[in-house]
Specification:
single chain, TIM Barrel, binds iron/sulfur cluster, 373 residues
């Protein structure tokens, strides 16, 4: 099982799509959900309980998560000194990565670092100077011997040209990435759709960009004999090549869970405080016997459910966007699946020619990349 360990609700940045939206959303009611707004701001349980909880699952993976988890560097050290999961990972904005000694950083199997593309775009969304601090820190951890997977984790909305920004992350001379994941800011807040331009942007910019990106991805395989880890493309291609269907691809609620700051287990970090979805507590729940929560309608009636998996449990249960608005998100899923499916004959041909291998599409599933943006 995978567990997001939510160390704090605090963050050192005020990104437009997170802090900015939360302020705007303050008056939005939260349907009929009974939400616990009094949870501790920082992890407030005995970390020995977490180590014991993790010990019961031989496949336990712990991912430090926030807010910004590196605001709690002491807690990270403490947990890494006591728990023995199969892997440690972290999702961070990267600004404080220099605060953690290399003996800890180098033990991370994967670091997911938030970066939205080039300097101008990253700083537009995340605040002036953010990009430079993140890049400096990434250079530092590589210099200090980090050899795990480093995934550029983009948040994407209307100011993003997806093709331009993903290819920039791959090809820039400052810090080229080979693993990129992106997530749409869509269906998350209650009040944003009406004032945004999501529908037009997704149709005229995002989806054509995804198609172009899929072509670029396969051209790269042909020319360099290498499969870039562009997670949304990789995850879909893996399923199509193996003819496999998928449950919710982030794993939320069935193989991937989150641990709140009070030790309560929930299906995913965004379901923070939603009492209806409290699934147990690290002090007494066996990680191998956790209840599973699955998406419901409309996903289970959808013609592409077996490949989409339902996109997002949080969005599915909270329905923050109207049916019509959410249909525009589903169109982006169809666009992504079609873009990969269109390229599948070329991919198969490259595998037959041994330019690449089927194994090049393998990855550690549920590693924090939701696959469906
Ligand atoms: S495309 Fe939309 S409705 Fe269909 S499974 Fe995915 S999220 Fe659900
Ligand atoms: S996709 Fe949705 S359910 Fe999955 S981890 Fe993200 S917010 Fe949670």
């Amino acid at each position: 099982m995978f567990f997001h360990v939510m160390l704090t609700t605090e963050c050192n940045l005020q990104c437009r799509y997170c802090f900015g939206e939360a302020v705007d959303d303050f008056s939005g009611d939260f349907a009929d959900f009974d939400v616990d707004y009094d949870l501790p701001r920082k992890a407030a349980y005995d970390f020995a309980l977490l180590a014991e909880f993790c010990r019961k699952d031989p496949e336990c993976v712990l991912t430090f998560y926030g807010g910004e988890p590196l605001l709690c560097a002491d807690a990270i050290r403490h947990i890494m000194n006591s728990a023995k999961p199969k892997h440690f990972m972290i999702q961070t904005n990267g600004v404080l990565l220099d605060r953690l000694e290399q003996e800890y950083v180098n033990r991370f199997h994967t670091i997911l670092v938030s970066i939205d593309g080039d300097e101008a775009l990253t700083d537009y969304y995340r605040g002036k100077g953010t990009f430079r601090r993140v890049i400096d820190n990434l250079r530092l951890i590589i210099q200090n011997g980090f050899r795990g997977e480093l995934i550029a984790r983009m948040t994407v909305m209307e100011q993003t040209n997806i093709y331009r920004q993903v290819t920039w992350l791959l090809n820039n001379s400052e810090f080229p990435f080979s693993s990129v994941h992106w997530q749409l800011n869509a269906g998350f807040w209650a009040n944003d759709y009406a004032r945004r331009n999501f529908k037009e942007w997704s149709q005229t910019s995002y989806m054509p960009g995804i198609k172009r990106l899929a072509e670029y991805w396969v051209d790269y395989m042909r020319e360099k004999h290498r499969v870039l880890r562009l997670y949304p493309l990789l995850g879909i291609a893996h399923s199509l090549l193996h003819n496999e269907s998928s449950l919710l691809r982030c794993g939320g609620g069935w193989i991937n869970y989150a641990i709140q700051t009070d030790g309560t287990i929930i299906p995913c970090p965004t379901m923070w405080g939603m009492k209806k979805y409290y699934l147990g507590h690290i002090s007494h729940t066996n990680p191998l016997e956790l209840k599973k929560i699955f998406v419901g309608p409309p996903c289970i009636e959808c013609d592409i459910f077996s490949v989409c998996g339902g996109r997002c449990l949080y969005a599915n249960v909270t329905r923050r966007w109207s049916k019509e608005a959410y249909a525009t998100v589903c169109d982006t899923v169809r666009g992504l699946v079609n873009a990969v499916a269109t390229e599948l004959p070329r991919i198969r041909q490259l595998i037959e020619q041994k330019a690449i291998s089927l194994g090049d599409f393998d990855f550690l599933k549920y590693n924090g990349c939701e696959i469906i943006p």
